Amino acid sequence: MTDYLSLARQLAPDIIAWRRDFHQHPELGFEEFRTAGIVAEHLQALGVETRTGVGQTGVVGVIEGASPGPTVLLRFDMDALPVPEETDLPFASQHPGVMHACGHDGHTAIGMAVARLLAQTREQWPGRVKLMFQPAEEGLGGAKAMVRDGLLKHPRPDAAFALHLWNQLPLGQLVVQEGPLMSAADHFEISIKGKGGHGAAPEDTIDAVLVGAEVVNALQSIVSRNVPPQDTAVLSVGSFRAGGAFNVIAERANMAGTIRTFDPEVRALILQRMQKVLTGITAAHGAQAIFDLKENEYTPAVINDASMAEIARTAAQKMLPPEQITEIRPLMVSEDMSEVFNRVPGCYVLLGAEPEGGARGPHHNPRFDINEDALPLAAAIMASIAVHFNRRQ
Ligand code: NI
Q1: How far is the CA of 258 from the centre of ligand 1 (A)?
Q2: Of 27, 32, 64, 79, which one is the catalytic site residue?
Q3: How far is residue 52's CA from residue 38's CA, in Å, rounded to a whole number?
Q4: Which CATH number is associated with domain 4-182+302-392?
Q5: How far is the C-alpha of 206 from the C-alpha of 357, rounded, in Å?
Q6: Are 301 and 180 in contact (CB under 8 A)?
Q7: What separation in Å is there between the alpha carbon of 184 and the centre of ligand 1?
Q8: Secondary-structure breakdown of the chain: helix, strand, coil percentages, each rounded to the nearest 5
Q9: Residue 137 annotated among the catalytic residues of the structure
Q10: How far, in Å, from the CA of 136 to the mean position of ligand 1?
Q11: Which residues pair with 181 in a beta bridge?
Q12: Which residue, among 299, 377, 337, 374, has the nearest Cα to 133 in the 3D structure?
């Protein structure tokens, strides 16, 4: 077995330099023009067949091994967040209001390192490795856009893997587990129409604030009273807007929120109960309501395939001591790699990247940072997983 960890460690100065350059020049979802350009140039210089513009700013590279065999897909996301950076890093963001606050700068650098590791060892493994450099992971549907643009064709991957650096986990700890890892996410909006009027004459009005408040309360009964306690779900109303004056009864109330689930049946139950609650409460008051589920923003849950998790674990065991390979409680955040996993069996792993002295901010925080020592390890893990999958088929 090729010693990818030693090879990756030799590459560490390059990986860190790439990461810092991306960190300094963060780009929002579907605007990763500079980042994608650097990635494409790097792949082409390695002699890797490269396609650009896949899902707008995505890049796909295919590395051919020594002999025919399966195709494995590895995914690296490239987008930054609309977060103003508040670190004192010498390579802090030069784009005001935009920051790599989730570590995707690291992921892009890891992907470039994996490309180099696999290209330089291509005589030693069979099949193909498809590298997916994804735009717009942060809620904008980059994975879906790439799938729509033919990501999973010519060649069709037999398996897919992704890794996220996690700064809340100790450096070098790898989370590999089968089954649920990250929840599905829905975005809904509700608008209630009552009848506005004078604050002193409620009898002539239908108070949208009152109806809206009842709706918010009743929605909270769905997870607590309708979802079986053994199942996991979240329903949060994050925004409520109504009225504009102290002495006017509001005509409208608008709210927005999110639903997190793992099981499509639980999701269906919640959606059905939301409709009922809304219809019932508004009818009781003579108000009207529109329930707008943003179906096109739906992100499915990340569910790891058991045999793919086993492959990732076996590959990782060659470079990490057993106590560093762990499992966690599933996270209620979402990740659109599930768009790929719904079509190709796969496994998503988390690699601990806690900075020395502890994280100063969690993911998506203005003080977020990662431990760069995790970068070569991540590259070695991803390269090993790909080669291990292709060899055992
Ligand atoms: Ni992320």
Answers
A1: 18
A2: 79
A3: 11
A4: 3.40.630.10
A5: 56
A6: yes
A7: 15
A8: 35, 25, 40
A9: yes
A10: 10
A11: none
A12: 337
One-letter amino acid of 47: G
If you measure from the C-alpha of residue 273 to the centroid of ligand 1, how many angstroms do you get, rounded to a whole number?
31
Amino acid letter for position 107? H
What does the pLDDT profile of the chain (393 residues) look like in tens digits?
A: 689 999 999 999 999 999 999 999 999 999 999 999 999 999 999 999 999 999 999 999 999 999 999 999 999 999 999 999 999 999 999 999 999 999 999 999 999 999 999 999 999 999 999 999 999 999 899 999 999 999 999 999 999 999 999 999 999 999 999 999 999 999 999 999 999 999 999 999 999 999 999 999 999 999 999 999 999 999 999 999 999 999 999 999 999 999 999 999 999 999 999 999 999 999 999 999 999 999 999 999 999 999 999 999 999 999 999 999 999 999 999 999 999 999 999 999 999 999 999 999 999 999 999 999 999 999 999 999 999 999 986
Residues of the chain with CATH 3.30.70.360: 184-297
Architecture of domain 184-297: 2-Layer Sandwich (3.30)
Is the Cβ–Cβ distance between 49 and 62 less than 8 Å? yes
C-alpha of residue 291 to centroid of ligand 1, in Å? 29
Q: At what angle do helices 208-221 and 264-285 cross, to 10 degrees?
A: 150
Asked if 79 is an active-site residue, the reply is yes
Choice among 27, 64, 105, 137 that is catalytic: 137
